[in-house]
Amino acid sequence: MSRSGEEVWKNSTEKINSELFTLTYGSVVAQLCSDYNNNYNLVNKQLDSMGYNIGIRLIEEFLAKTGAARCHTMKETAEIILKVGFKMFLNITPQVDNWSLDNRQFSLILNENPLADFVELPSDAKDLWYSQILCGVLRGALHMVQLDVSVWFVKDVLKGDDITELKLKLNKILKDEVPAGED
Amino acid sequence: MSEEEIILPSIASGVKSLTVNDRPMHEFGYNPSLGPHSNEITESSLNILLNRKTISLTPTSTHSIYDRNILGTKKHELSISSLSFLFGEVVSWSHRSSKGIQDLENRLNGLGYKIGQRTLELVKLRERFKNTKREIRLVEMLQFIHSTLWKALFGESANELERSQDINNEYMITDNCPLMAKFINIPKDYGNLNCSALTAGIIEGALDSAGFYAHVSAHSVPTDYMPQRTVFLIKVEEEVLIREDLRGGPMN
User: Fold this and answer.
1) What does this protein's UniProt record list under function (chain B) (predicted)?
2) CATH assignment at residue B115
3) I want to staple B147 with a disulfide (CB 3.0 to 4.6 A). Which of A150, B104, B139, B157 is the partner?
4) Per the CB < 8 Å rule, is B81 touching A50?
5) Chain B residues with beta carbon closer than 8 angstroms to that of A35
């Protein structure tokens, strides 16, 4: 029996004020930037791999709480990620858009982003994808359900874009195997 | 109208004073002596309208943080799991890049410090200086952290606030079930590591920003029913105590 994101959020989620989360993440990104001497490409990479580590653990809670069944198409997968995954962990519901013709690639549009609530990027941080950790989380979580995907940001309101947009592309469906952790 | 010149005290002498018969310098704009007539678009005013060179000052994004109401009463909530996953990863990342337990705690403390500085500002702003005052006494400040700040961050006040009887610059805040470290399990060989070092950093950041310079550390003091019970030891700097004395000695 699979449950909707709304149900899981309402009934079996312990909730906290998102600001502590926002500020903690902000502090981490700031620390990474100073650790890597403002080499933003390295910061993106590090955030992505931290996200991956989170994703491979997070999928377990997701499956346990939702009892979601196997998805048969990418459209179903997208629906579950948006309406259940994002809802139960971040309490937001992004939009899906821009499907590619072969239905293997789509855009996630974040109307709100709790990670970036109090954030203003310095003008020299053009290369930083502030919320890159989300890409890693999606990649890690989907990896654990045998989907090898690439996820990347194309737009971010922090950079002056009108929306925050991620692209998710299915590379291939993996055979059952245990992926190695990433450090 | 009298023929006398009107004295305009706010205009520096030497500047020609205006009379109602003056025309706008650029033949453009409303002239009260002409009435609506003056707003007609003539060839010269059209030129000004069409040929002006400007830099747009209109904000391009309405998503800027400054456009949002920071006092917002509606709080966004999210799952405690998200915070725990993030915190777990932060600890293991700090662990990988640190040289030992002390170094790891220092790193966590440093991360918390930044949170504390910002939280103090935010909470005070939200409170809208409710009690129309700022905390200038150490004990009041500690009570503020123990209750208001704690509530804003973790949803409820901390459990105890105490002053050491033996050492006069030591204060303690106790949390029976610290939210951040709820899902952290310390391996045996890490002895006295306490991941609430991050929370200690938050307290330190807030105290320092408020001018009560202190050093804060986290210590596990488990009881049978509360295995995660943590005491935050606050060592206040000498200068703060001297100031307290000037303000009338320690309270309570």
Assistant:
1) Plays a key role in the late stages of endoplasmic reticulum to Golgi traffic.
2) 3.30.1380.20
3) B157
4) no
5) 97
Would you call B155 an interface residue with chain A, using a CB distance cutoff of 8 Å? yes
Q: Do the domain assignments include residue A22?
A: yes
As a whole number of angstroms, the distance between CA B248 and CA B245 comes to 5
Ranges of residues in chain B whose predicted pLDDT is under 70? 1-29, 31, 33, 55-64, 72-74, 129-132, 249-252
Q: What total of structural domains would you count in chain A?
A: 1
List chain A residues with CB under 8 Å of B200: none
Does residue B175 share a domain with residue B101?
Answer: yes
Mutate to test the interface with A, among B77, B120, B149 (most CBs of A within 10 A): B77
Quickly list DSSP for B185-222.
---GGGTT--TTHHHHHHHHHHHHHTT--EEEEEEE--
**What is the model's pLDDT at position B249?**
65
Return the pLDDT at B100.
Answer: 86
Specify if B119 maps to a domain.
yes
List the single residue in B with minimal CA-CA distance to A160: B61
Per DSSP, the three-state class of A40 is: helix
| Cross-chain Cβ contact A17/B75 below 8 Å | yes
Task: State the average pLDDT over residues A34-52.
Answer: 94
Q: Which residues of A touch B83 (CB under 8 A)?
A: 16, 20-21, 24
Contact A21 B64 (CB under 8 A): no
Q: What's the confidence (pLDDT) of residue B8?
A: 60
Q: Is the pLDDT confidence value at A177 over 80? A: no
Residues B86 and B42 in one domain: no
Q: Do B83 and A21 touch (CB under 8 A)?
A: yes
CA A118-A122-A125 angle, 5° bins: 115
What are B183's two structure tokens?
A: 């899902």
Residue B157: which domain range? 79-246
Query: What's B86's DSSP letter?
Result: H
Q: Which residues of B touch A24 (CB under 8 A)?
A: 83, 86-87, 90, 111, 115, 198
Asked whether this complex has an ipTM greater than 0.85, the answer is yes
Distance from CA of A54 to the nearest CA of B (A): 6
In a domain, B62, yes or no: no
CB within 8 Å: B82 and A30: no
Residues 6+ apart with CB under 8 A from A95: A82, A108, A109, A111
The per-residue pLDDT for A180 is 65
Q: Is residue A44 part of a domain?
A: yes
